[in-house]
Design a protein that fits this description.
Two copies of one chain form a homodimer. By secondary structure, the first copy, chain A, is of the alpha+beta class. Chain A is 36% helix and 30% strand. Chain A has a single domain, classed as Alpha-Beta Plaits, CATH 3.30.70. Chain A is built from two helices and four strands, in the order βαββαβ.
Protein backbone atom coordinates (compact mmCIF):
# COMPACT_ATOMS: atom_id res chain seq x y z
CA UNK A 1 0.00 0.00 0.00
CA UNK A 2 1.47 3.33 -1.06
CA UNK A 3 0.08 6.75 -0.26
CA UNK A 4 0.42 9.50 -2.84
CA UNK A 5 0.13 13.20 -2.40
CA UNK A 6 -2.04 14.30 -5.35
CA UNK A 7 -2.56 17.95 -6.23
CA UNK A 8 -5.40 19.38 -8.29
CA UNK A 9 -8.32 17.14 -7.33
CA UNK A 10 -11.36 19.34 -6.76
CA UNK A 11 -14.49 17.21 -7.18
CA UNK A 12 -15.98 13.77 -7.52
CA UNK A 13 -15.15 13.71 -11.22
CA UNK A 14 -11.48 14.15 -10.30
CA UNK A 15 -11.75 11.27 -7.84
CA UNK A 16 -13.12 9.03 -10.59
CA UNK A 17 -10.51 10.26 -13.10
CA UNK A 18 -7.61 9.47 -10.76
CA UNK A 19 -9.10 6.09 -9.83
CA UNK A 20 -9.60 5.20 -13.50
CA UNK A 21 -6.06 6.34 -14.38
CA UNK A 22 -4.55 4.03 -11.77
CA UNK A 23 -6.78 1.13 -12.78
CA UNK A 24 -5.74 1.58 -16.39
CA UNK A 25 -2.18 0.59 -15.49
CA UNK A 26 -3.33 -2.05 -12.99
CA UNK A 27 -6.91 -3.24 -13.33
CA UNK A 28 -6.59 -5.06 -9.97
CA UNK A 29 -5.39 -2.00 -8.05
CA UNK A 30 -7.37 -0.91 -5.03
CA UNK A 31 -7.60 2.86 -4.92
CA UNK A 32 -8.91 5.06 -2.12
CA UNK A 33 -9.04 8.78 -2.67
CA UNK A 34 -9.30 11.33 0.15
CA UNK A 35 -10.35 14.38 -1.84
CA UNK A 36 -10.22 16.85 1.05
CA UNK A 37 -6.74 15.73 2.11
CA UNK A 38 -5.38 15.42 -1.44
CA UNK A 39 -4.23 11.89 -0.69
CA UNK A 40 -4.63 8.69 -2.71
CA UNK A 41 -3.91 5.25 -1.27
CA UNK A 42 -3.08 2.60 -3.85
CA UNK A 43 -2.73 -1.11 -3.25
CA UNK A 44 -1.02 -2.40 -6.39
CA UNK A 45 1.86 -4.53 -7.60
CA UNK A 46 2.94 -1.71 -9.93
CA UNK A 47 5.96 0.37 -8.89
CA UNK A 48 5.26 3.86 -7.54
CA UNK A 49 6.75 5.72 -10.54
CA UNK A 50 4.28 3.98 -12.88
CA UNK A 51 1.38 5.00 -10.65
CA UNK A 52 2.68 8.57 -10.40
CA UNK A 53 2.98 8.73 -14.19
CA UNK A 54 -0.54 7.41 -14.74
CA UNK A 55 -1.99 10.01 -12.38
CA UNK A 56 0.12 12.75 -13.98
CA UNK A 57 -1.16 11.79 -17.42
CA UNK A 58 -4.70 12.29 -16.11
CA UNK A 59 -3.71 15.86 -15.27
CA UNK A 60 -2.77 15.75 -11.59
CA UNK A 61 0.55 16.09 -9.77
CA UNK A 62 1.30 12.89 -7.87
CA UNK A 63 4.12 12.07 -5.48
CA UNK A 64 4.53 8.85 -3.50
CA UNK A 65 4.83 9.52 0.23
CA UNK A 66 5.58 6.09 1.65
CA UNK B 1 -29.49 33.01 -25.28
CA UNK B 2 -29.92 32.62 -21.54
CA UNK B 3 -27.26 33.00 -18.90
CA UNK B 4 -27.38 30.75 -15.84
CA UNK B 5 -25.67 31.17 -12.54
CA UNK B 6 -24.30 27.69 -11.79
CA UNK B 7 -22.83 26.77 -8.40
CA UNK B 8 -20.44 23.93 -7.70
CA UNK B 9 -18.36 23.79 -10.88
CA UNK B 10 -14.72 23.35 -9.88
CA UNK B 11 -12.82 21.86 -12.80
CA UNK B 12 -12.81 20.91 -16.45
CA UNK B 13 -14.72 17.72 -15.69
CA UNK B 14 -17.52 19.84 -14.24
CA UNK B 15 -17.54 21.99 -17.38
CA UNK B 16 -17.97 18.88 -19.52
CA UNK B 17 -20.61 17.43 -17.17
CA UNK B 18 -22.72 20.60 -17.33
CA UNK B 19 -22.31 20.88 -21.10
CA UNK B 20 -23.31 17.23 -21.57
CA UNK B 21 -26.31 17.63 -19.24
CA UNK B 22 -27.66 20.52 -21.29
CA UNK B 23 -27.01 18.75 -24.57
CA UNK B 24 -28.89 15.71 -23.30
CA UNK B 25 -32.11 17.73 -23.20
CA UNK B 26 -31.24 19.62 -26.40
CA UNK B 27 -28.60 18.07 -28.63
CA UNK B 28 -28.48 21.27 -30.70
CA UNK B 29 -27.88 23.57 -27.73
CA UNK B 30 -24.82 25.78 -27.79
CA UNK B 31 -23.25 25.90 -24.35
CA UNK B 32 -20.47 28.15 -23.10
CA UNK B 33 -19.20 27.70 -19.58
CA UNK B 34 -17.21 30.32 -17.68
CA UNK B 35 -15.83 28.18 -14.88
CA UNK B 36 -14.18 31.02 -12.94
CA UNK B 37 -17.34 33.16 -13.02
CA UNK B 38 -19.75 30.28 -12.36
CA UNK B 39 -21.76 31.26 -15.41
CA UNK B 40 -23.17 29.16 -18.23
CA UNK B 41 -24.56 30.65 -21.44
CA UNK B 42 -27.01 28.44 -23.27
CA UNK B 43 -28.45 29.02 -26.73
CA UNK B 44 -31.37 26.60 -26.93
CA UNK B 45 -35.04 26.37 -27.83
CA UNK B 46 -35.73 24.60 -24.51
CA UNK B 47 -37.32 26.66 -21.74
CA UNK B 48 -35.07 27.80 -18.90
CA UNK B 49 -36.67 25.54 -16.25
CA UNK B 50 -35.81 22.45 -18.34
CA UNK B 51 -32.19 23.61 -18.64
CA UNK B 52 -32.02 24.37 -14.92
CA UNK B 53 -33.41 20.93 -14.11
CA UNK B 54 -30.91 19.18 -16.41
CA UNK B 55 -27.99 20.98 -14.78
CA UNK B 56 -29.40 20.28 -11.31
CA UNK B 57 -29.66 16.57 -12.12
CA UNK B 58 -25.94 16.62 -12.99
CA UNK B 59 -25.30 17.84 -9.45
CA UNK B 60 -25.03 21.61 -9.78
CA UNK B 61 -27.30 24.45 -8.65
CA UNK B 62 -28.51 26.40 -11.67
CA UNK B 63 -30.57 29.59 -11.86
CA UNK B 64 -31.45 31.52 -15.02
CA UNK B 65 -30.33 35.14 -14.83
CA UNK B 66 -31.73 36.65 -17.98
Amino acid sequence: MTTYDVKGMTCGHCVRAVTAAVQQVDAQARVEVDLAAGKVQVDSTMPAPAIERAIAEAGYEAKALS
